[in-house]
Amino acid sequence: MTAARTVHVAAGRRLVNRKAAQLLTEASTDPRSQLLASVSGPGGSGKSTLLENLAVVYSEAGIPVRTGRQVLQQGAVDEGTTVLIDDAHQWDDPELERIHRLVDGQPVNVVVAYRMWPQLPALNRLTTTLETHRRPVLLGPWNRDEVAAHTATTHGEPLPGSVVDRIFELTGGMPWLVQHALEAMSSRGRTLPQDPLEFGGLVDQVGYELERLAPDLRELLLALAVGFDPAGPMPAEVEDTLGGIDPLMSQAAAAGLILPEGSLPPLMRSVLLQTTPLHHVRTAQHALAGLLSTGETPDPTDVARGLAQSGLQDPRVASTLQSAGDSALATEPHLAATLYEEATAAGAPGVSTAARRAQAALATGDLEGAGRLVDPLLSQPEAPDKQRGADVAASLWAQRGMLARSAQVYRWVGAPAADASKALAAVVMIGTGDRDAARSLLAADRLEESPTLTNVAVSLMGQGVAESVGEHTERALPALVRASDMLTASGAAIPLPDSPAALAALVALHSGELSVAESVLDDALRGGQGGPAGRLRLLLLRAWVAMLQDHPDNAGAAIAEATAGGTCPAPRDELLLDALHVGLARRTDDMAGLVRAWERARGRLLHVAVDLYNLLPLGELAVAAARLRDSERLRPHLADAWALLDKLDQPALWSTPLRWYAVQAAILAEKPTELAPQASALVRASGKHHLAAVLASAGRSWVSVLAGRIEPRAVEESARALAAVGLTWDGARLAGHAAAHAEERKDMSRLLACARDLHPGTRGATTTEPNHPAQSTAAEHEPRMTVTTGKASAPEGPALSEREREVARLVLEGKTYREIGAAIFISPRTAEHHIARIRRRLGASNRSELLTQLRLALGEDGSQGP
């Protein structure tokens, strides 16, 4: 039986293997001291190189050296001679016995190198005797550091760590394979291809050596390359050889063809599959595929993946991969998508997994890919897995901001067969105003499916949304919070029109329960609800909560995290993002930012239809449009919103915040005729909805303030009530505006104190407003709450205090005493005193000089007019 040819590395005194180097060092240090040792290792592990180095050491020391069968052919061995025996496993028993007598008979140096197979009785006796004099030198694959050391020696300098890692990965540290890889690299200028088969000459060289193996040994290696497990069933031609698998495995290990744990180095596997005739490979692969359904493979999925990746088409492979994809779909959609693709490559009909592949694509955020898969599926009358496809399509339309199309999907597909889909369809129907259809679906939702975490979560979603438009709206939020908890606990990413955490947050926001919205969103984010694809929407809603809480920095951080890495939001969430930018700019008195954000948002509105779940961004845009005198653009969208709410009988929970936005928009637009109906509706709803009662009271206070009737106690109560339902900025704004119009100094002081108490972080703005058609008019009516975005120190001249710098910035923006007082919660008279003191300190004799000096003091370039 022909064994693999031993590959010699370059001879020299330096050896990579630590144990071999230690033996060589002993011989070099005291060559006259007797050395009796055995060296064991697989083929190509460096045994011959060690003997060559020992021969050099002893020869240079003047000690006679005999190698191989010279020992037997040249008669007696003189005392002090060094005897080096390589490949002792190929010697017969009489020859080995003669060496054994030499060891026992006279003072000579004897080093015997051999493989562990075949096991020869005479060789065992010889090595046992040698081991009584010195521990054996056991050679094997190199570790990563040894590969690095050898490559550095071969090339004259260290190779990059990535190259060393790749060589180690491909060869498993087998020295003879490492050497072949380095020789192949030398023709490529030290570059290393990802595919080992791209090495010039490498496949031919290693393949040549493998061709020289005995047929049975090569069959064993091919079986391992294909994916057979030596601990399980093997091909018949391997099982029947030499009485079984064990002798062949021992032979392969001894020849240096497999790693110690019995696996093939990746390079060997690639070469075997490349150099074996394809029909022979396919025969072995089909035999392996036959074991997949019997449970006789330790990891059927890995085996099936290897077979599919090799190009094998077999229904057993496809079925195994499809089942593995089904198991991973809910919790590991990326893996599931890969498994389904491999199943298709292995021969599974594409239509059979289309719905599941679409679900996986949707869960990974690939909306376009999901759409391309599900559209052809739903165009077939008898499409497989049609209900799953409908859920995916409905979710896609919802994320595209076209919830009415989601409803159309469910109407087209018919009454959903699964309880979970009935609840999802109900969420969609309610979101588009069809409460009767939703009630019909939920009446049939008896959760007849197993009460898994996901099924319960979806059922609670349907229940919670239905309660939000019913008589007992107080039941909606608990149901949705529990739904969020259940879905987070499941770890599943399933097709939904919206996540339960998002719905719970929306209901909480519409109820004035900002702390609940914050809590449920934080829990969902920590638990990874909906997977990576669902994280962006949760973060944007978290930013919305922070904005309403008057925490613009937290809102900005959440937005930055949501959009990190160039993540592209779905159209529905793009609208939410644009509305956030609008709302933050409005609340920080950033007119330039507000104009830019509005320009983006009004274009976004053309892509997204109104539904129940995007009323908040619509309301925020309505206020911005009123401030910028551009309300006409929003009129059709608001008409759709009110029509939708009419179809649902104006549910207080969902309509109240939009009415509050409408009140603010009417105030800014100076249209009392539009304010009155909304205020009246808030009053009517106040008996059933706490937030409506708070906003109705605040609305009355605003009307009184705008009419010049300042009732400090009522205003303060309304402002603090607004803050209690999370509308801190709105409360401070009401108190500040009332203070600016109060006639009594004590009333002014009281209201300013209230505003500062609600909004303690108020600072002077550093942004200036660009010219805009709506600016001059709208700015007169929007009481501004501004935050510092930065400070500039004066390059020279007298230093201004922090309060004086705040006043100076507002002066440069062209604000009046009253507007300055409203912005930083001081009285107009106090603002006037500050400006007079600043003028004296800067030595300005007139307004023009004052403005010039202020620009210098604040480090501004003066390019923008006041």
UniProtKB/TrEMBL annotation:
It holds the Pfam family GerE. It comes from the Bacteria. Residues 760-802 are annotated as: Disordered. The keyword DNA-binding applies. InterPro entries: P-loop_NTPase, Sig_transdc_resp-reg_C-effctor, Tscrpt_reg_LuxR_C, WH-like_DNA-bd_sf. The keyword Transcription regulation applies. Residues 764-778 have a biased composition (Polar residues). CDD domains: LuxR_C_like, SIMIBI. SMART domains: HTH_LUXR. Keywords: DNA-binding, Transcription, Transcription regulation. Residues 793-858 form the HTH luxR-type domain. PANTHER family: DNA-BINDING TRANSCRIPTIONAL ACTIVATOR DEVR_DOSR. This is LuxR C-terminal-related transcriptional regulator.
